[in-house]
Each structure stands twice: as structure tokens, then as C-alpha cells.
Amino acid sequence: VQLVESGGGTVQPGESLRLSCAASEFAFSKFFMYWYRRRPGKDRELVGSISSGGDRTTLVDSVKGRFSISRDNARNTVFLQMDRLKAEDTAVYYCMCNIPSGAYWGRGTQVTISS
Predict the structure, then answer these.
(1) What strands, in cross-sheet order, belong to the sheet with 17-24?
(2) What is the pLDDT along the chain (115 residues), one digit of tens a residue?
């Protein structure tokens, strides 16, 4: 199983970023996908999830109305659209899948919001 995140970077407050997670070596379209983040000095936390078909998503309260999750099963890719970014969104963002053989994580992509 491989999960490779991309799209991170440094932006100013109020700007947007779109993260991607390219998945391979498992039946991507059959499983929920998850985005997590680890903010400086804090434990890793769940940001949100998306169902296998993409019709259901969940988001943590702190990002509702600003972030959205989507997926393209034809491209084995899940996305995290982040709008109106705040300094407290600074973190390493990870995608994760939980499949019968175990839980798998990408290496993460750094997102920094700085004025």
C-alpha cells in the first residue's frame, strides 16, 4: 500500500491550498479515506473522512465551512480542499486508509500559514 501526499506549502492567512493523496496497491474505491494532521506540539488529530463512493464526508468542527474532502476513484486520489486558512491550521497533513491488512499512512505534507 502506498499513499503519497502532495500540495502542501506556505501561504498567508485567508488563502487556500488543495492537498492530494495518491493511493496505490490496494482497492482504493472500496474503502473510506481519512485526512489527519499533526499541529506543532500536539497529537495527530482526525481532520475528516470520505466514504468509498465519495457521497458522505465528515469534518472536525474546527474546519467545517472551510475545508472539504473529495475523491476521484478513477485516479485513486483523495483531496483536501482548504479555504480561508488560519495560522492554527499549520500542520503536517496525512492521508490514511484502514483496510483489512491494517492501517496505512502517507509521509505527510507540510502546510504552513504565515503572514
Answers:
(1) 2-6, 17-24, 77-82, 67-72
(2) 999 999 999 999 999 999 999 998 999 999 999 999 999 999 999 999 999 999 999 999 999 999 999 999 999 999 999 999 999 999 999 999 999 999 999 999 999 999 9
